[in-house]
């Protein structure tokens, strides 16, 4: 039977307009937490963003987002996820191109 836990949940205590909310993201760790926090903080409409891993044995992160001017933190989160995905695609494409064009430093295993 498949796990019915949603990937992202809004935790209790969020403002009614979602201008400030804490999101629990399941099956993720510091890897996505730090990258997503970085992408969110690039948005000038984000007042605060931070994340935590509640406990090492728990396989989720909590991401707190607070927005200026009553804007939706959910909209900012979705945009940051899209922007992070676009960045990863660009890095993958450029990396693949550089490998095809032999534009990399060779390492001699005997050294």
UniProtKB/TrEMBL annotation:
Localization per Swiss-Prot or TrEMBL: Nucleus
UniProt cross-references to Pfam families, sorted A to Z: RNA_pol_L_2
Annotated signal peptide: none
Gene Ontology CC: nuclear DNA-directed RNA polymerase complex; RNA polymerase I complex; RNA polymerase III complex
GO biological process, one term: transcription elongation by RNA polymerase I
Residues covered by the DNA-directed RNA polymerase RBP11-like dimerisation domain: 20-93
Keyword match Nucleus: yes
Keyword Transcription part of the UniProt annotation: yes
Any GO MF annotation of the entry: DNA binding
Keywords: DNA-directed RNA polymerase, Nucleus, Transcription
PANTHER family assigned to the protein according to its UniProt record, in alphabetical order: DNA-DIRECTED RNA POLYMERASE I,II,III, DNA-DIRECTED RNA POLYMERASES I AND III SUBUNIT RPAC2
Homology family: Belongs to the archaeal Rpo11/eukaryotic RPB11/RPC19 RNA polymerase subunit family.
Protein name: DNA-directed RNA polymerases I and III subunit RPAC2
Taxonomic lineage: Eukaryota, Fungi, Dikarya, Basidiomycota, Agaricomycotina
């Amino acid at each position: 039977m498949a796990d019915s836990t949603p990937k992202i949940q809004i935790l209790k205590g969020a403002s009614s307009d979602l201008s400030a909310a804490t999101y629990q993201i399941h099956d993720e760790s510091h890897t996505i937490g730090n990258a997503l926090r970085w992408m969110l903080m690039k948005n000038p409409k984000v007042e605060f963003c931070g994340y935590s891993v509640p406990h090492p044995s728990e396989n989720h992160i909590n991401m707190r987002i607070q927005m200026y001017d009553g804007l939706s933190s959910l909209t900012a989160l979705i945009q940051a996820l899209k922007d992070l995905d676009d960045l990863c695609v660009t890095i993958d494409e450029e990396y693949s191109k550089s490998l095809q064009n032999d534009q990399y430093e060779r390492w001699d295993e005997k050294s």
